[in-house]
Amino acid sequence: MRRPKLPRPRLPRTRAGQRRLVQAVMSGCVLALLPATWMYVVTGDRLRTTADVPRTDVAVVFGAGLWEGEPSPYLAHRLDAAAELYRAGRIEVVLVTGDNSREDYDEPDAMRTYLTRHGVPDSRIVSDYAGFDTWDSCVRAKKIFGVDEAVLISQGFHIRRAVALCQEAGVASYGVGVEAKHDATWYYGGTREIFAAGKAALDAVFEPDPRFLGRKEPGVTQALTAER
């Protein structure tokens, strides 16, 4: 059985129709770029390096996947930056936030184990097991863990979105974007950010509740009083 041929789209024949088409395309491009523009405006002077980020009590490290139970290379680079900041005395506590929605997948515990192997005391690490996406992690940092100011650590393609969303959630933030190899994962992450920017803008406007909020936890406050 032969499939019916779909009609080919036809370009407008009149000059007025062509002009309207061009205007529609340009409007679509502008709308698509608005979320990214918003992120750049909000985060304009909030990005730093591990060498010049202001001293802050708390660093937040966002999950970035596990490989056979261990942090992926991308996540390991984030954790390395957090450990470096701790050893340099620029932060006091690391809040690791990630996905633990399944028994066989636990980002925060894997992140904790990695940090302790790299010189961060277990008592100075706090786990957020419901950081299912960036907005959830930012809101929970503020509402559940009482974080008012933080250094955020992620890859460069993600850090602006993280800072913009945490700022909107009420966490005064500086972002450290760690280096990343320009492999297939990097290109995927950069492309994904184009679409994620739109969701981020919607999160900032409508401020939805996280998938799981729960009760307040004193982990960060307790960790700040623990011995170094």
UniProtKB/TrEMBL annotation:
<feature type="domain" description="DUF218">
    <location>
        <begin position="57"/>
        <end position="174"/>
    </location>
</feature>
<dbReference type="Pfam" id="PF02698">
    <property type="entry name" value="DUF218"/>
</dbReference>
<dbReference type="GO" id="GO:0005886">
    <property type="term" value="C:plasma membrane"/>
</dbReference>
<dbReference type="InterPro" id="IPR003848">
    <property type="entry name" value="DUF218"/>
</dbReference>
<dbReference type="InterPro" id="IPR014729">
    <property type="entry name" value="Rossmann-like_a/b/a_fold"/>
</dbReference>
<feature type="transmembrane region" description="Helical">
    <location>
        <begin position="21"/>
        <end position="41"/>
    </location>
</feature>
<dbReference type="InterPro" id="IPR051599">
    <property type="entry name" value="Cell_Envelope_Assoc"/>
</dbReference>
<keyword id="KW-0472">Membrane</keyword>
<keyword id="KW-0812">Transmembrane</keyword>
<protein>
    <recommendedName>
        <fullName>DUF218 domain-containing protein</fullName>
    </recommendedName>
</protein>
<keyword id="KW-1133">Transmembrane helix</keyword>
